[in-house]
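Justification of computing resources. Each target in the renewal requires a structure prediction run like the one illustrated here; the chain below, 487 residues long, is used simply to show the kind of job we budget for.
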Amino acid sequence: MKYASWVIATILIPIISASPALPKAAAAQEEHPLITPSPVFHDATKTYKSRRDILSDLKGGVDSILSELGSDIPSYVASGVPNFFQGWNLRFHGNVYKQPNISESKLDDLANGFLIGTSVQSLPPSQASQARNLTAAIFVLQQSDQNVTFSLAPAPTAGSSGEQGGGGAVTPAGGYQTIDFPNPTTAQGDFDAFIQIDDNGLEAGNTTSAIQRLNVYTQGTDTGNATAYLVPNRGLSIISDIDDILRVTKIYQPKEGLLNSFARPFTPWMNMPDIYANWSRSIPDFHFHYLTTTPEQVTRNYMDFIYKTYPGGSFDTRPLNFSDVTATLSIRKFLLEKIFRTFPERKFILIADTSNSDVMRDYPALVTDFPGQVQCIFLRNTSATDNGDKFPYDTSGFKGINQQAYMFFTVPDDLTNLDISNGQCLNATVKQNVTFSYQGLPFGLSKTTGSNTTGAASGKLSALGSWGGLWNWSALAVVMVLMLGAL
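Resulting structure tokens:
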């Protein structure tokens, strides 16, 4: 029987013998946390996602990448879907880099490029430190022709879910082994391949429904560590966005969105951690996968926030492809489809907010493109709860989809008491007003082609394009490319 793991060892590896780096900034501390973080066992096994160019290269033109990796790389690397063998196939992907020597004044100049209406010098000390740290993480020197070796071991815990261990995963009895990555890093410092690992006491994927969790340690560094999740072919997974669904970002307001991402401490959105903790406790073998289109260099704080506040799980982030801006700007659908293709027998809960036009397009498309795999779709109606979101959204993709299979909601409590494991996706007490067209137009107008009045609020939903189509994480990726060229 074939079985695979989903994603999972994603690693950012610094070269220890790097040129002198900027003196380490003081750790950013929350000055006035709005919500006390959930209890968490916090160790060195946080998943740090790092995939620079490889994913979008795989989508657009994999031949050049494969030529760099070597002719012995099998075809499943090109597709991004494992060629299943007898046993677990673990995907190792990440980047090897050096931290350049950047003066603090230059770093401040670079950080100011990501801020609107303020400057690093004007921020409180802790926020200024965070802005410098994130900027320094963006401007790194990728290292080619590096050989990478990993050690695997059972992981005792990861994430915060209100239960021992967290994240719906278990600690396996075995799994100890050493993995030599088969090829050196590419010209961009990347490594990316599925590798068959030895069972060594791991439960076979066709004999267990449990998700097994492994620590992944990169030899030669104490910072290139990750958490791997071995996910069986069958079961239930949630694919969750992060911005404005798990944390307060306000990505539809450029100034606030950048400050909340680069400088301010991350804050959970209302009581959403309680919803996820309850799902983790009450749904057996529930796999959490966090997919954000935030540029990968900016996601260390995302990983830290998730592992302190939500159930542990695997991650996908936006890879930056400096040679192909088009591929860089259209990544969510590619990542989603790769997950669905890798696990054709699993069912998925999809959750995000309405301020992302790609979500409004891609989520309903998965219902028809992968019949029977989408269990529920939940979309937070951002403009109904935040008057700063004034942009329309398009619900036309939901026309023809079973109205019991999705719900637009306004507060986390709308998700309570739903039996999502058995396909109950609609809370009958939450009014829906879906016109299957553009909604949230100025003056309360909407372009109506038909309507579903059983379900999200009478208020407007949200975005035709994140940040009005003028500024979003895609635009930020372009800015990062341009600024790299200016160094």
